[in-house]
Amino acid sequence: MKLALLGCGNVGSEVVRLMRTRGEELASRVGEPVEIVGIAVRRLDRDRSHLPVEKELFTTDALSLVKRPDVDIVVEVAGGIEPARTWITTALAEGKSVVTANKALLAEDGPALSAAAKAGGADLYYEAAAAAAIPLMRPLRESLHGDTINRVLGIVNGTTNYILSQMSQTGAAFEEALGEATELGYAEADPTADVDNYDAAAKAALIASLAFHTHIDLGEVYREGIRDVSAADIASAAAQGRVVKPLCIATREADGVSVRVHPAMIPTTHPLANVNGAYNAVFVEAESAGRLMFYGAGAGGTETASAVLGDIVAVARNKRGGITAFPPEAAYQDLPVKPIGEARTRYHVSLDVVDEPGVLARVAATFAHHGVSLATVHQSGQGDEARLVVVTHTAADKQLSDTVEELSQLTSVHNVASVMRVEGE
Ligand code: NAP
Questions:
Q1: Is residue 219 a known part of a binding site?
Q2: Closest CA relative to residue 136, chosen from 158, 150, 153
Q3: Is 368 within a domain?
Q4: Shared-domain flag, residues 172 and 290
Q5: Which of 227, 248, 275, 304 makes an SS bond possible with 132, Cβ 3.0 to 4.6 Å?
Q6: Residue 284: inside a domain, yes or no?
Q7: Residues of the domain holding 105
Q8: How many angstroms separate the CA atoms of 283 and 14, rounded?
Q9: Cβ(178)–Cβ(187) below 8 Å
Q10: Which pLDDT value is given to residue 329?
Q11: How much is the pLDDT for 328?
Q12: What integer pLDDT is reported at residue 332 of this predicted model?
C-alpha cells in the first residue's frame, strides 16, 4: 500500500515518525505494509534531518505526487483551503482514499468533498479534524448511528480554554492571560482564529453535521469570541457556583437545529466545568445512550497524528477489502438551521445602575415587557459602583437582545456591562 503525505509540519512530521517507528505493527493491523512514497512540503531547504525519513522523498510538487499511479492513499496535513482542495478532489476523482485533518476546508466544502469521494469510489476520513486525538467523528458517524443525538456541548479549542481557565484560577484579565498563553506556545502570534472562535466554529459545523445528519454550513454557525470576557464576569460566575467556558453548543429542537460557539457560564457541577487548561472535551446527549463525555488532547502534533494514523489503517484496510466504508456525510435529515434570534437559553446580565429607589422595579419591568422572566437578581456596590446582576429563566436570544437594547436606553442604567449565556442547567 503506497501513501503520499502532503505536509510535514507539526502533524505531518509526527505522522512520518510514528509510521516509521510503528511500521511493523501498522502492517499487521492493515494486513500489508503501508509505505510513504513521497512527502510534499513548501520549503525543500527546511531542516528535517531529525526525521527518520530519506531526503529524496521530499518534493514541492504535491499535485504530481497525488497523481502518481502507484499512490493508493493521500494524507493531507498541510492545511488551508487551496491548494489542499485541489489535491484532495484530484485524489478522490482518481479513486485514491484521502485522510485529512483540515477542519477549515471540511467546514467550507464538506458536501462537495463527500460527493467527490462517492463519485470516485474512495474513502474520505477526517477523525483528527474536529478534536485531534479525541475520537469523535467515528463515534458520531458509526457508534451512535442507531441513536438520536439531541445536544452536543463541547470545549473544542485549547487556546480559549487555557485563557479562560487561567482567568478563573488567577483572576487575570483577558489580555494578561492571552499574553501568558502566547509565551507558553498555547496561542499563535496572531490569535484571531482561536480567540475569535473561527477555529471552534469550523469544528462545530463538522460535529453538528454528523450529529444531526444535516449539513451545517460554516456561515450558519453563530460565533462570538472570548475577548469581551472580563475578570468581573468570571468573579460573578464564581460567586453563583458557575464557571465561564468557551463552548460549542449544538441543539436539535422540534423545528430545527441551532449551532453556536461563544463563551458561556456553566455550573461548577457540570462535567465540562473541570475540563481545564489546553484540554478539550465534548459532551453528547443521546436519546438512548444518555450522556456521554469524550475528553482528551484537542491539539498537538503527536496527539493529532495518532488520529491520522487510525484513519490510515482504516482506509488501507478498506482498500484491501475493495470497499469504501460508509457515505462520508449522511445529510439525509436536512433539518433547518435556526437563526440565533430563535436560540433559547438563560442569560447572565450585568448592569451598572444609578443608585436610587425604583431602579430595580424599572429594570424588572423592562425584562417583563419582552417576556423574559427573572430567576435571580443581585445588587452590589453603592453610588457610582452600584451594579445589578440578573440571571434570567430560559428565553429566546431575540427577546434578550431587545431587552438589552431597551435597558441601555433607561436613564437609570449607566451601562449594560456584560451579557453572557448560561448553559448546562
Ligand atoms: P503546519 O505545522 O503549518 O504544517 C503545514 C505543512 O504543510 C508544512 O510542512 C508546510 O511545508 C506544508 N505546506 C503548506 N502549504 C503547502 C503547499 N502549498 N505545498 C506543499 N506543502 C505545503 O500545520 P499543522 O499544525 O501540522 O496542521 C496541519 C493540518 O492539521 C491543518 O489543517 C490543521 O488545521 C490540522 N490540525 C492541526 C492540529 C495541531 O495541533 N497542529 C490539530 C488538529 C488538526 P513547510 O514545512 O515547508 O513549511
A1: no
A2: 153
A3: yes
A4: yes
A5: 304
A6: yes
A7: 2-132+301-321
A8: 28
A9: yes
A10: 62
A11: 57
A12: 86
Do 151 and 235 lie in one domain? The reply is yes
Nearest to 132 by CA among 312, 302, 325: 302
For residue 384, the model assigns a pLDDT of 85
User: Is the same domain home to 147 and 293?
Assistant: yes
To which H or E segment does residue 238 belong?
helix 231-239
Residues of the chain with pLDDT under 50: none
Q: Give pLDDT, residue 326.
A: 62
User: Which amino acids bring their CB within 6 angstroms of ligand 1?
Assistant: 7-12, 40-43, 46, 62, 77-79, 83, 101-103, 128, 132, 299-301, 304
Both 347 and 366 in one domain: the answer is yes
Q: Whose Cα sits closest to atom 4 in ligand 1? A: 9
What's the CA angle centered on 108, arms 106 and 113, to 5 degrees? 50
Do residues 114 and 33 share a domain?
Answer: yes
> What's residue 409's pLDDT?
96
Which atom of ligand 1 lies at the shortest distance from residue 41's CA? 21
Same domain flag for 192 and 233: yes
Q: Are residues 272 and 290 in the same domain?
A: yes
SS3 call for 247: strand
Return the active site residues: 203
Residue 7 annotated in ligand binding: yes
CA 303 to ligand 1: nearest atom: 40
pLDDT of amino acid 389:
96
188 known member of a binding site: yes
Q: How far is the CA of 79 from the centre of ligand 1 (A)?
A: 5
| d(CA 41, ligand 1 centre) in Å | 9
The total of structural domains in the chain comes to: 3
Strands 35-40, 58-59: pairing is parallel
